[in-house]
Amino acid sequence: MAPQRPRGSDATSHTVEATDGAFRAGLATASSEPGQGQLYAALDLGTNSCRMLIAQPKGSQFQVIDSFSKTVQLGVGLEASGRLSRASMSRTIQALRICQQKIEHHQVKRMRLVATEACRRAGNAKEFIRQVRRETGLQLEIIPPQEEARLAVISCAPLVSATTEQLLVVDIGGGSTELVWIDLSKVEPKERSRAIMQMHAGFKGDSAAKVVDWISVPLGVATLKDQFQDVEDDGARFALMSWFFEENLASFSPYYAQAPRAGFQIIGTSGTVTTVAASFLGLRRYDRAKVDGLLMTSAQIDLVIRDYLALGPDGRKNDPRIGRDRHTLIMSGAAILQALMRIWPTDRLSVADRGLREGLLYAQMSADGILEDGPDL
């Protein structure tokens, strides 16, 4: 499957706005007027994981009240069959039942529950969505790649530096990787983070931040791994994955841009990025406070990746910094990360322990006018 992008010409002429129908559908569960005490839920069903946050607005941020995360491997076998398997759907529905119980327990009225690449690609996705509704009462919404990209950008708004003029946000998922290039040069430095937040209405909204280009590459940690699972040599498989991912970026306009290093920022949001950061810090027990917002150099990232390669499959499986849920996927994610750091004009990466769920929450709360004036800097 080719990388997805809006119809039309390249670069600025094709920036995308979220469809009104999709945005309203996410708020359709609301049955009361929003207020500071109102709870919001955001659920992200991806190719590999099911994650949910329940949160309450607090000033310009939100406070997490409850959370859930489970590896469900919804996309197992999808690459070969084009369909979600019965076993993967059953695992996922079990996880969604727990989410439904948490939503009921907290009496959440405003929520957005989305599914991404696996459900976009599966021939039986509609059947699965109906089964979820029938067995759990939850109404999942399959969102298009451009909205997934937009929400990932919004989630990273608090990490945007006041000195950033050109921003690349990278979200490495299980089934796809979204990249968004944003020009902030016309935005006052102190307003740059807030300008990102204003994108809750879409890439063509009133924000002064301008999307230069975006792309959704249908290669994430699970799908890229599946492409090269027949390559037995660990090092060769890693090199091929990194090369193949870079090849899929050829139509992304900024790939060929000669942007200056000064004023350029990459923010990476994914389990891969946070795992690499935790490994660099030597964390045997994950600590979000130490990882979120960490600035890593290319040399530091390469050092961690070389360590992963030296460990080999068995060593990675037993490394507590990686974890048993991620050890089979970390090298495909690392291949994507290495390719990105090789291409773009910077030697630093901002690590974001945040993603689609946080973007969903920010977007709902911003649309309701509940958050104060942008995220705290």
Sketch the major β-sheet.
6 strands, mixed
What name does CATH use for the topology of the largest domain? Nucleotidyltransferase, domain 5
Spatial order of the strands forming the largest sheet: 8-7-6-9-11-10
Write out the CATH superfamily name of the largest domain. Exopolyphosphatase. Domain 2
What is the radius of gyration computed over CA atoms, rounded to a whole number of angstroms?
20 Å
Q: Indicate how many domains the architecture comprises.
A: 2
Strand content: 15-25%
Strand element count:
11
Q: What is the count of helical runs? A: 14
Name the descriptors.
6-stranded mixed sheet; Nucleotidyltransferase, domain 5; globular; 19% strand; alpha/beta; 377 residues; 5-stranded mixed sheet; 2 domains; 14 helices
State the gist of this model.
39% of the residues lie in helices and 19% in strands. By secondary structure, it is of the alpha/beta class.
Describe this structure as you would to a colleague:
The structure is a single chain. The chain has helices spanning 20-26, 78-81, 86-105, 117-121, 125-136, 145-155, 192-197, 221-227, 234-247, 271-281, 288-291, 298-317, 330-343, 356-367, and strands at residues 40-45, 49-58, 61-71, 110-115, 141-142, 166-172, 177-183, 210-217, 264-269, 295-297, 348-352. The chain has 377 residues and is of the alpha/beta class. A six-stranded mixed beta sheet has the order 8-7-6-9-11-10, sandwiched between helices. The chain has a five-stranded mixed beta sheet with strand order 3-2-1-4-5. Helix 10 crosses helix 12. A hairpin with a 4-residue loop joins strand 6 (166-172) and strand 7 (177-183). The model is unreliable at 6-32 (pLDDT under 50). It has two domains: 11-146 and 357-367, ATPase, nucleotide binding domain (Nucleotidyltransferase, domain 5, 2-Layer Sandwich), CATH 3.30.420.40; 155-355, Exopolyphosphatase. Domain 2 (Nucleotidyltransferase, domain 5). The protein is globular and about 50 Å long. The longest helix is centred in the first third of the chain and has 20 residues, at 86-105.
